[in-house]
User: Which sequence fits this backbone?
């Protein structure tokens, strides 16, 4: 079971790619507390107040694709895959997002789906305006933040 | 295949329910161009610039559940179901949203998933502040609006 999203960013795939493949870029739309090894085969550490995620970088095709495997984090996330596919259409870079391989449609999956949408809008804002809304200043959606 | 979301609204289930079951409420967070018959068995008409959706109201359990069937609209939507389940937790009314029964993971499904998140945040804003962001003044996410 997969979470799917699609946003369009008025920018080049290279600029969107930079926001998805560098510690600096990632820390400016997802969570400020980001570190690790951004190369293919490396592990990225994303931390939030309640915990976080370690992502192994499985594939980077510059300006086209970024694919991660969740190697540590909440039990429901471990072994799932996160993918950003980029394509250019009408002056936009379209981001086709997938968080694949959820084993059950738990309430936490619903929360993560909405929250991914919020973060993808933060990515869009970062690339278009220079300023995103990464955690801990992200848009709060519920009692689960 | 389903789109799932979860938002929490600092308000009572009754107030959230009113925004989900009346033409007035619905027109203030989803699309201003809303009419039809809001009773169970009735059909609600939601219109946007590029088209719209007709929803048969299948079930209303006040303060608990709203369930619609898509009876007209884009081909991918026809026959799918939209459900809002409400529960009270920690001073929030949690909205568990499902748009169920997509036949294929088409790009339009990804778009609708992100857009539903945006509209659910509009619902949250409406109920919490009195002002939502229904179409045509909704937040634009891409070349597909």
Assistant:
């Amino acid at each position: 079971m997969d979470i799917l999203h699609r946003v369009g960013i008025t920018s080049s795939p290279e600029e969107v790619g930079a926001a998805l493949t560098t510690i600096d870029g990632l820390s400016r739309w997802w969570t400020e507390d980001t570190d690790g090894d951004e190369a293919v085969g490396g592990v990225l550490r994303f931390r939030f107040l309640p915990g976080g995620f370690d992502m192994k970088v499985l594939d980077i095709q510059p300006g086209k694709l970024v694919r991660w495997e969740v190697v540590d984090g909440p039990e429901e996330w471990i072994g799932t895959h996160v993918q950003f596919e980029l394509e250019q259409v009408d002056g936009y870079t379209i981001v086709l997002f997938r968080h694949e391989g959820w084993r059950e449609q738990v309430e936490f999956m619903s929360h993560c789906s909405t929250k991914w949408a919020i973060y993808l809008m933060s990515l869009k804002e970062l690339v278009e305006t220079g300023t995103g809304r990464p955690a801990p200043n992200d848009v709060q959606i519920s009692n689960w933040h």
